Amino acid sequence: MRLKSVIAAAAVVLAFGIGGANAQQVEKKDLKLAVGGKPLLYYLPLTVAERLGYFKEAGLNVEINDFGGGAKSLQALIGGSADIVTGAYDHTVQMQAKDQPITAVVLLGRYPGIVLASVNKAGTIKSVQELKGKKIGVTAPGSSTNFMVNYLLTQNGMTPEDVSFIGVGGGPSAVAAVKRGEIDAIANLDPVISQLEADGDVTPIADTRTEKGTLETYGGPYPAAVLYTTPAFIKENPKTTQALVDVFVRTLKWLDQAKTEDVLKILPPEYFLGNQTLYAQAFEHSKPTYSPDGRFSQEGAEAAYKVLKAFDKAVAATNIDLSKTYTNAYVEESLKRIK
């Protein structure tokens, strides 16, 4: 079995042709990457790329810093302490409205994978309308989990000010917040949600782990996790940007073909929250959310814009040029070489 894995890995390296060439070409080898909740399945492509050694094979030395929530990792980029971010596509739209443009260069998630669920200890909250005046746990205020709740509130005649948002992170801290009764509802992702469901602690109200659930919530496809950076970084480091996109396209191709046991073998044990079987089920729930090729669609970008306009006054007041929020140029180049 081990020999087969080694042979398969070698075949992949040969097929992808990634390694030495990029190592000599990149403008910037040492990179700082920010993420908000690395153990979440939302960001699994990042961990897979890291654990399989794809960054190193592309000639990149990537230091990953986990800030616990997407808003904080965005701040790291804007503040200059990060070069690149794996975060929500939504931020590219929001930052253009603030005249601080950022650009997404590869799509990692085609469905958000976020679940809004009521906490069973809190009573019988069965709908969004019943959330008024309640405490809702999100990974971090200003993150994509927060945005989902904001949108659902506005669609149901309320505003984000009608509830209280509490940052609970995206791992054991989120599970603990539910079990201690600190929140009435939670917007989070797997494996957190699957863990809480298995323990009988929560009941989903809206679930975007599937195409059907995403359509029911947002009315169309919705881009989720992406790799984004500043236009200045892309302009100054085109070969580095291409190498990064190569890594993630290669990772998405691997994930698309991977079996559950392949994924479990490469992950650190702490990702399983003490239950590897449950994590395996959570991965199988989440696998359809990953992009198979890294491409963005205009339809998805328009859906995100529509959602953000519903509750973000700055976005609503700005004529957003969606063509500047993402580019497929690097992905298309990767796909010419990565099969």
Automatic annotation (TrEMBL):
One Pfam family this sequence matches: NMT1
Residues making up the signal peptide according to the UniProt record: 1-23
Lineage: Bacteria, Pseudomonadati, Pseudomonadota, Alphaproteobacteria, Acetobacterales
Organism: Roseomonas genomospecies 6
Protein name, as recorded: ABC transporter substrate-binding protein
GO terms (BP aspect): alkanesulfonate transmembrane transport
PANTHER family associated with the record: ALIPHATIC SULFONATES-BINDING PROTEIN-RELATED, TAURINE-BINDING PERIPLASMIC PROTEIN
Cell compartment(s), UniProt: Periplasm
Entry similarity comment: Belongs to the bacterial solute-binding protein SsuA/TauA family.
Gene3D superfamilies: Periplasmic binding protein-like II
Domain Solute-binding protein family 3/N-terminal, first and last residues per copy: 32-270
Keyword S-adenosyl-L-methionine recorded: no
UniProt entry keywords in alphabetical sequence: Signal
GO CC annotation, single: periplasmic space
Chief location: periplasm
Superkingdom field: Bacteria
